[in-house]
Design brief:
The protein has 4 helices and no strands. With about 80 residues, the chain is mainly α. About 75% of the residues lie in helices and about 0% in strands.
Length: about 80
């Protein structure tokens, strides 16, 4: 945590519950606006997201934890590197 962040957090810790909720909402709005400048999804992208979401929620496909998948990939890369030596 940076010094500035630590100082802000220390000040925020002194706020009332209502003030904390207001700060939380303001920070959320700030982050939403920051991401609003990203390009909007195309209709094809949205259709793909909708289709994939339906596959997940219907149980047609099973999701895996990203860290498990990344570990599996890393293990395979290490195996390939070891066999190439």
């Amino acid at each position: 945590m940076s010094t500035a962040t630590a100082a802000i957090f220390q000040q925020a810790a002194q706020l009332s519950e209502a003030e904390c909720e207001d700060l939380y909402e303001q920070l959320g709005n700030h982050l939403s606006r920051a991401h609003a400048s990203e390009e909007p999804l195309t209709s094809d992208m949205q259709a793909t997201l909708d289709r994939r979401w339906e596959e997940i929620t219907s149980g047609k496909v099973q999701c895996e934890d990203a860290f498990v998948v990344l570990d599996r990939i890393q293990n395979r890369l290490h195996e390939r590197a070891a066999s190439a030596s």
